[in-house]
Amino acid sequence: MEHPALPEGVLQGDPQHRNALHDGDGAVLCDWDTLSLGQPEWALVTIEVHCRRFGHGTTHYNDFATAYGYDVTSLPGYETLRDLRELRMVTTNARKTHRTPGSLAKIERRIEGLRHSDTDLPWNIL
């Protein structure tokens, strides 16, 4: 079955738990400094990666995908999108290692995990 692409839209750039303001009725994304136009699948794979890598769990992601009405993990090419997003997350944080002692070992651990296709290796926020 072919999976239709979502229409292009405004992307927040780094949709994740720490970039949301929560109240009793839901959450609102903040931190819009990387605003762009593009395919929502890029933002959705970011959310999936954060849920899986940072301990929010499969149930949390599945609840999100159900509420959103789209599960990016069922997209043909999901693995490629996931791998690109995770590589970007590693390289973005790697350039910060000179300012944060101890983060180099965490980056090296992530790289080893990617090299061995360990998609379940938990990551820590850097």
Number of strands: 4
Q: What count of helical segments does DSSP give?
A: 4
- Straight-line distance between termini: 39 Å
The oligomeric state is single chain
Q: By helix and strand content, what is the structural category?
A: alpha+beta
Q: Taking strands numbered 1, 2, ... along the chain, how are they ordered across the largest sheet? A: 1-4
**Domain module tally:** 1
Largest sheet entry? 2 strands, antiparallel
**N-to-C SSE series?**
EEEEHHHH
The low-confidence runs, each spanning 5 or more residues with pLDDT under 50, are none
Helicity range of the residues?
Answer: 40-55%
Rg calculated over all Cα atoms: 15 Å
Mean pLDDT: 89
Strand share of the residues? 5-15%
InterPro entries: Kinase-like_dom_sf
Question: Could you explain how this protein is built, in words?
Answer:
The protein is of the alpha+beta class and about 130 residues long. It contains 4 helices and 4 strands. The chain has one domain (about 10-115). The chain has helices at about 40-55, 55-70, 80-95, 105-115; strands at about 10, 20-25, 25-30, 35-40. A two-stranded antiparallel sheet has the order 1-4. It is globular and about 40 Å long. The protein starts with 8 loop residues before the first strand and ends in an 11-residue tail after the last helix.
